[in-house]
Amino acid sequence: MSALRRSVVLLTTACTAAATLAGVGLAGPASAAPCGNEGLLGSSPLGQALGNAFGSSGAGPLLGRSSAQGALPVVDSGNTRPVAWVTGGRSPNRTDTRFGITGTDLGISWDNGSGQTLMAFGDTFGDCNAPRQQWRHNLILRTTDTDPADGVTIGDGVPGDVRSGAVVASATPRYASESIPALEVSGVEVTTIPTAAIAIDGVQYMNFMSVRQWGGPGRWVTNSSAIAVSRDNGQTWATDPKTVRLNLPVSIPGVEQIDDSNGKYQQSAYLRGHGEDQYIYQYSTPNGRYGAAFLCRFLPGNILDLSKYQYYTGDAGDPWSSETTKSKAVVTEPVSELSVSWNKRLQRYLMLYGNEANGTIAMRTATRPEGPFSAPVTLLTRQQLGGVYAPYVYPSTGGDDRYLYFTASRWLDYNVMMLRTDLSQIAVG
């Protein structure tokens, strides 16, 4: 989608949304602190520093040149332990000096199909005293590390090298480039954030959400979700307009997939079927962290054709439908950022997500992609490690299937860490 066409779509959406936004109650900022700001995007201390995306004035005090990342947290009870920081100045990767990353989140990881793991990160900050605090809406890092037991090692970024550790320009070889731009206009489009990714036949596909407005902790409003495509290993990305799922019942020429049920598919996780199952499954939630999880599936060659998607209905006699409106929840709310994978040790599908209501990172299992899913098993509580969110399964175990490795982010540090769950301590029915 061209920048002009994207602007027209989003501005039209914003006009239609104006009355809706008035009744949503978007009073407070989210609760993160990149560069020492009181909130992540949308709080007044960021105003002049980052411009009209935040609709405020006056830049508040900053905490030096980087985000306030602490030492790796220690968890001495339960089934899950932090392994290492992946990002930040305290990480072995020193992303502050090597990639201009002092604060970021998410770290969605997937096998690129040719010996690398790609990782997609959300809103990213660098030098906190630089113009706009070196804010990028999202970016990609790459690694060949298949043993996460001591964390993830990311190689140097090399200009023009599509297999190097980061996408960098020759003029700024120590500054990771943004992947998908945003308009940066509050109430229209503040940012664009990856939510899921997968490789099919050497092509990379990344699902992302266009955020219209931040709300209170765990709440935000999206314009849409869509799929961006990269045919050069994440070096460049192009949004396919046919995959846009608008989060409002509006009519935009050339975008046909518009109905109220698209709101269920704003944040996603991809899963490959196990064994002879040829389908790719897409689990999704509405915007924010308080919705249920829904499910659709498609054959790999149809990922960009939403008309070929099938939606889980919950009807045992007719479980899959081409109608989005028949999509039923597979896991009840609240489900925040999630990831799903097949686990060899457990011989089950495994879902990780955050529960915003009780402050836990939870795991559920199922023998079929559509479930039924087990009751949640707690991996972390807020008492053990507060402010942790967005658990994404890492696609390698280093050869030891006792452990499940996943990345997660913590508000206090606004950086991504690798964690490890001891599956021998997990009972499954």
Overview of the structural elements:
It is a single chain. With 429 residues, the chain is mostly beta strands. It has one domain: Tachylectin-2, Chain A (5 Propeller), CATH 2.115.10. The protein contains three helices and 24 strands. The strands form six sheets. Strands 12, 13, 14, 15, 16 and 17 form a six-stranded antiparallel sheet that branches. Strands 7, 8, 9, 10 and 11 form a five-stranded antiparallel sheet that branches. The longest helix has 20 residues, at 3-22. It starts with a helix and ends in a 7-residue tail after the last strand. Mean pLDDT is 87; it is low at 11-32 and 39-63. Residues 73-100 are annotated as: Disordered. Keywords: Signal. This is DUF4185 domain-containing protein. Residues 91-420 form the DUF4185 domain. Residues 1-32 form the signal peptide.
Could you tell me the strand content as a percent range? 25-35%
Give the SSE string. HHEHEEEEEEEEEEEEEEEEEEEEEEE
| CATH architecture assignment | 5 Propeller
Overall pLDDT metric: 87
Q: How big is the Rg?
A: 20 Å
CATH class: Mainly Beta
Shape: globular
Distance between the termini: 46 Å
Uncertain spans, ≥5 residues at pLDDT below 50? 11-32, 39-63
Domain DUF4185: 91-420
Region (Disordered): 73-100
Signal peptide: 1-32
Keywords: Signal
